Amino acid sequence: MTDTSLAAPSTALPRSSLDLIGATPLVEVTHFDTGPCRLFLKLESQNPGGSIKDRIARSMIDAAEKEGLIKPGGTLVEATAGNTGLALTLVGAQRGYKVVLVVPDKMSQEKIFALKALGARVVMTRSDVGVGHPEYYQDMAERLAKDIPGAWYVNQFNNPNNPKAHEIGTGPELWAQLKGRIDAVVCGVGSGGTLTGLTRFFRQKSPRVKMVLADPAGSVLADYVAHGYIKEAGSWLVEGIGEDFIPPICDLTGVREAYTVPDAESFAAARDLLKKEGIMAGSSTGTLLAAALRYCRTRTRPEHVVTFVCDHGNRYLSKMYNDFWMSDQGFLPKEVRGDLRDIIGRRADEGAVVTVAPTDTVLTAYGRFKLYDVSQLPVTNEEGKIVGLIDESDVLLAITKDEANFRQPVKKFMTSRLTTLPPTAPISDLLPLFDQGLVPIVVDGDRFLGLVTRIDLLNHLRRKLKN
After folding, report:
1. Full-model pTM
2. Contact predicate 88/111, CB 8 Å
3. 3-state secondary structure of 217
4. Which of 132, 14, 44, 137 is nearest to 85 (CA)?
5. pLDDT tens digit sequence for 30-85
6. Exposed / middle / buried, residue 29 (Cβ in 10 Å: 0-12, 13-18, 19+)
7. 375 noted as active-site residue
8. What does the DSSP 8-state code read for residue 71?
9. How many CB atoms lie within 10 A of CB 250?
10. In degrees, to the nearest 5, what angle opens at C-alpha 284 toward C-alphas 279 and 287?
């Protein structure tokens, strides 16, 4: 079931992309077990900036202009997990404002690239520090706003026009699309605007509608709802939701149930959403979907439940949708062999190793360094046997001698004296090779199994700590 009744056809063309914000479609989940319930997703990824944050960016900037807080040609400054920054830059660019964004360093590269492409100045800061630390992203943004002439600190976490966007926009849209048949709404909390705005709307329109919190494991919010106190925050990889404090605008008093969702469950739910429903969503959507499914499956009677596709999954291609990243983080199970094969990040038997042939050109090797973000490549023959190794230093030495060497075959410049280890070798055998600047090559007889890099070993040791 898809209902876009709120967005009635119109003959008037939008004057800009900002006119496309809101009136997002609603689609029913049909390929998941939802117990006795019907579960609906509001596709906020269909906003022009690709996320639910487009709504609050327009709302906050509109209000600031009316109140005279931002002048023509001024600068918007904000602390953001990415999507609010993208939305502010989208709106700000069309209103003639410069944008400076302070972004925690755990955000996806896709978001950073998109922010810079839109024209924002991005200031990266630490994601492992809390309120009061000089590098905490909100504190840093507030300082920058004071230091930059003509700047306005947007402060989504304490801006009343953030929840207002959902109270007068998102809430009425949901009510109209489901014709008032709503029993529960599942929300996450980043700034708290969505939850607060919808809580206010449904308190007035239909107090029986239950607000359900979806919170990443490590965040303090679900425990606060359950126990009334703030525990020490942990860490999580889901982006955009979860906090180590209670945002000033966040109203949790209407939350009836709260679910804590680990990263692994969130990522799995989002990936399943793509496979089963054809909807590519971001990591926070995975948290919301996982919590909504848990809620639905524990009901004893039918309910209409709504949650959100908060943003588009194309912003997470290098992370959640990257099998290598998922494996490095320990989220994709691997067969445990109890030897060096468990450490190899890119296994040859899985077709994951990027290689070149001896007859490939140096230019081909250079291109693969760039494309796959690697610094060395195994050179394999037609039988798949490793016969050499070429790295960036080999290429650099060849090209500085003569740029025409780009056209020469790899075999002229590769290293053929290889340092190999059997899979049964102890981990301690890797360290002397790393100290010599060598790349350990794991082979089983003549069969090439893969390379072990320093980061492979670090990932392996971190996964052991995590488990």
Report:
1. 0.83
2. no
3. strand
4. 137
5. 999 999 999 999 999 999 999 999 999 999 999 999 999 999 999 999 998 789 99
6. buried
7. no
8. -
9. 24
10. 90
